[in-house]
Write a structure and sequence with these properties.
The complex is a heterodimer.
Chain A: H1 17-34, E1 48-53, H2 59-70, E2 74-79, H3 82-87, H4 91-100, E3 105-110, H5 115-122, E4 127-132, H6 138-152, E5 159-163, H7 170-181, E6 185-189, E7 209-211, H8 215-218, E8 224-227, H9 243-250, H10 254-259, E9 265-266, H11 280-283, H12 290-309
Parallel strand pairs in A: 1-2, 1-3, 3-4, 5-6, 5-8, 6-7, 8-9
Helix pairs in contact in A: 1-6, 1-12, 2-12, 6-7, 6-12
Chain B: E1 4-13, E2 18-27, E3 30-35, E4 44-47, E5 52-55, E6 57-62, H1 75-84, E7 87-92, H2 103-116, E8 120-123, H3 139-145, E9 150-151, H4 160-169, E10 177-179, H5 184-187, E11 192-193, H6 196-201, E12 205-206, H7 209-225, E13 229-231, H8 237-248, E14 253-257, H9 259-263, H10 300-312, E15 317-318, H11 327-330, H12 347-356, H13 362-377, E16 393-403, E17 422-432, E18 435-439, E19 442-443
Parallel strand pairs in B: 1-4, 1-5, 6-7, 7-8, 9-10, 10-13, 11-12, 13-14, 14-15
Antiparallel strand pairs in B: 1-2, 2-3, 5-16, 16-17, 17-18, 18-19
The chains are: A alpha/beta, B alpha/beta.
Chain lengths: 319, 445
């Protein structure tokens, strides 16, 4: 392991192709550690990791916490409700406080796009973006890449279909950058109101992106189908007539899965609205990698924390 | 009052088509002589060799924040900043607390600026009580006090009937209604221009149509009532097209543009190293809250349309929309940050870039900063260098190279998206009624 990571992970576009593959390789080693009987290594002993979550989250926060604990780091979890933070301390003062207690890394989730950039600009502490507004969720991208690499053996030239609320999805934004960079063919599928057409214009960051409103057509040659969570409030903002109509057109059901390739894989970043964007039988069926994604998330985050915090020249993987 | 003799300067006065090297004498606060060579032994002499001598700039749209928001700006600091920016008269928007919707509020600004202001301040009254869009203010009473127009700026006058009545009622006093055009349902939660940049940053955008739809409505209402309509801070090509058509058909409409909407585009939000590439990776200078403003910075096509609008005469003048904010108003996330740019001190330098790029002439720029606003105000003795006019004069060096540093701002608002930028051109002297108020970095009461 000789990864030279950037100081912060703000979005997947911080990383080159090579750096992404390096993390995926490191994650394999971490997966081996995760599968040990005694899953603990002393690598990050004495390091303090702060999770600063301004939005409720279960899977991302416990995934980071588990990753940090296996590496023997100490974890401080802070949850702040956005509404009360307005009355309380400013985001600026909060990050300065965390810096002053000698935290070694801050993992932030915030409902405002760009919040991790604001933290990174104002503190010395390395920042990991655990999801900011509709902007980015780079560790989700890394674990999705890892999961696909692990199951399909490659990312280049695979056909991936992202379905649903692309407009508001930070997972979609990071994944579009990541998969596009690594040469996958991306099809965006969903109602026009939720698909920003800017992704379709060809330029050096967004390549191989198509739009296909019809789910049946979109999944035809899919290697991977990735439905995104539909927020209930899209109805009141006029993006959708109602969830029933959405579901009728864009729910990933076993009928839809049967149209696509024999060995198609289903991913979902969670949390799922079963019966709305994905049917329960598909979510829990044989083609679903959704549980595996969660496990892989821990390994990927271990690799990431290790690369950002380890100061020893050689990795100590001893138990 | 000691006379001032400005020697060897290049006098540019668009109001009288003047552009020549002449001396100018100020006596008793009035421009008394303009001749090829003047001598006056007792006068205070200003050597303006290599400098432009221009009518003092007039800003028809700025926010002084007082009363109510003195931690962002005061009449004292705002007029200091304006003097440093070459302005001799500025018009204060009424979105204070309390709003400028009553005689007492207007009187406060008038008296406070007489007492503590460096330059002249003319208040703008609110269209509706408390700027909440429901009931008209006592417009005749306020006009008699000297407000130069009415606006609920910051908010649009949203109710079409109230806008109609305001335009109709204001014909009694012949004062303009200045509207901030924004269809709120379209701009709701929007932070920046809607387009590739908002998609890339994952923030809600404000579409161009949010502005032009209301501009069109207001123009129709002006046609219906005959009321004088002024559209504040235009930013999109579509709005310019609508105003062009209205002007051609004789409707009483004018409009203004800000320095930032003719010199900056939305790409600045991608971050410093990214101005010229379409979708590079974001960096720590991305999401600059200082570039968050209403209307939002638009794309380069819109910026080009603004510059054409100036050249064509569709845009009547440049107004700053100087919007100072306190530290925490901008030192937060893009979403939590306030809208607005502090720019009255950089206005000339920014807009001079259009002259240096050969996009507009120096004379046209000066016209848009001085004589056109004076014409809008219907005041004949400012905004020109005629003999007998008030000696409100700005002297600037069009070629002086300097760097913007917000720590040097007189304004309390340090919120500039061009901090650190190298500028070409700077105000050297600001003279108000024959008194030097600003000279090479120093202010004088």
């Amino acid at each position: 392991m000789n990864l030279q990571t950037k100081k912060h992970l703000l979005d997947i576009d911080c990383y080159s192709k090579e750096e992404i593959f390096q993390i995926l390789n490191d994650s394999k080693i971490m997966m081996e550690i995760l599968n040990r009987k005694v899953k603990k290594i002393p690598t990050l002993r004495g390091k303090t990791i702060v999770t600063l979550f301004y939005e409720p989250s279960t899977r991302t926060r416990i995934s980071f916490e588990q990753a940090a604990k296996i590496l023997n780091a100490d974890v401080i979890n802070i949850s702040i409700k956005e509404s009360s933070s307005n009355k309380g301390e400013s985001l600026l003062n909060t990050v300065l406080t965390i810096q002053s207690i000698k935290a070694d890394i801050i993992i932030i989730r915030h409902p405002h796009s760009g919040a991790p950039y604001f933290l990174a600009k104002n503190s010395e502490v390395p920042i990991i973006n655990a999801g900011d507004g509709s902007h980015a969720h780079p560790t989700q991208s890394l674990l999705d890449l890892y999961t696909i690499q692990n199951n399909l053996g490659k990312i280049e030239n695979i056909n991936i279909v992202m379905v649903g609320d692309i407009l508001y999805s930070r997972v979609a934004r990071s994944n579009i950058l990541a998969f596009s960079k690594l040469g996958a063919n991306i099809t965006l599928c969903g109602p026009n109101t939720l698909i920003p057409h800017e992704f379709l214009s060809n330029n050096h960051l967004y390549k191989n992106i198509k739009f296909e409103p019809s789910l049946k057509k979109a999944v035809k040659n899919a290697d991977v189908i990735m439905p995104l969570r539909i927020q209930l409030e899209r109805q009141s903002t006029g993006h959708l007539p109602n969830l029933q109509e959405y579901s009728k057109q864009w729910c990933i059901t076993s009928d839809i899965v049967s149209i696509s390739k024999q060995d198609v894989k289903i991913l979902h970043p969670g949390p799922m609205n079963e019966g709305i964007e994905i049917s329960s039988d598909v979510a829990h069926g044989p083609k679903s990698l959704i549980s595996e994604q969660v496990t892989n998330g821990v390994a990927v985050r271990m690799a990431l924390l290790y690369s950002m915090l380890n100061t020893e020249p050689n990795m100590n993987l001893e138990e | 009052m000691r006379p001032i003799l400005i020697k060897n300067g290049r006098l540019i006065d668009p109001a009288q088509n003047l552009d020549s090297n002449k001396d100018l004498l100020i006596e008793n606060g009035i421009i008394s002589k303009i001749e090829k060579t003047l001598t006056y032994p007792d006068a205070h002499k200003i050597d303006a060799k290599g400098l432009i001598v221009s009518p003092g700039f007039i800003d028809l749209h700025c926010h002084l924040r007082e009363p109510g928001y003195e931690s962002s700006e005061t009449i004292r600091t705002g007029t200091a900043a304006a003097a440093a920016g070459g302005y001799t008269t500025i018009c204060a928007m009424p979105n204070t607390n309390p709003a400028m919707d009553s005689k007492i509020a207007i009187k406060y600004v008038q008296e406070e600026s007489k007492k503590n202001g460096y330059i002249n301040v003319l208040p703008i009254g609110a269209v509706t009580k408390n700027r909440d869009g429901k009931e008209l203010t006592p417009m005749i009473e306020l006009a008699e006090l000297g407000v130069i127009g009415f606006s609920d700026d910051g908010n649009p006058v949203y109710d079409a009937n109230i806008m109609r009545q305001a335009l109709n009622y204001s014909t009694i006093t012949n004062t303009p209604i200045i509207n901030h055009c924004e269809v709120l349902e379209l701009s709701k939660n929007g932070l920046i221009n809607e387009g590739p940049i908002s998609t890339r940053l994952g923030v809600k955008g404000i579409p161009w149509a949010a502005e032009s739809i209301m501009a069109y409505r207001d123009i129709q209402l002006s046609k219906l009532t005959g009321g004088k309509l002024h559209i504040a801070h235009v930013s999109t090509k579509s709005t310019i097209d609508i105003i062009r058509e209205a002007k051609e058909s004789g409707i009483s409409v004018t409009c203004e543009v800000t320095p930032h909407h003719i010199t900056l585009n939305e790409n600045i939000l991608l971050g410093k190293e990214n101005y010229n590439s379409e979708f590079p990776s974001l960096n720590l200078s991305s999401y600059d809250t200082n570039a968050k403003v209403k209307p939002p910075l638009r794309n380069s096509f819109d910026v080009d349309a603004m510059v054409s609008g100036i050249k064509e005469g569709i845009i009547d003048f440049i107004a700053t929309d100087h919007a100072p904010h306190k530290f925490l108003g901008k030192n937060t996330t893009l979403q939590a940050a306030e809208f607005g740019i502090s720019n009255i001190e950089t206005s000339l330098s920014s807009t001079l870039s259009l002259f240096h790029n050969s996009q507009i002439s120096l004379s046209l720029l000066i016209e848009k900063l001085s004589s056109s606003p004076a014409k809008f105000l219907n005041i004949s003795n400012i905004g020109n260098l005629r003999k007998g006019s008030k000696a409100d004069i700005t002297i600037f060096d069009p070629n002086k190279i300097w760097k913007v540093n917000y720590n040097d701002f007189y304004s309390k608002g340090k919120n500039t998206p061009i901090n650190g930028h190298e500028m070409k051109g700077k105000v050297i002297f600001t003279i108000v009624s024959g008194k030097i108020k600003y000279e090479k970095g120093n202010l004088y009461d």
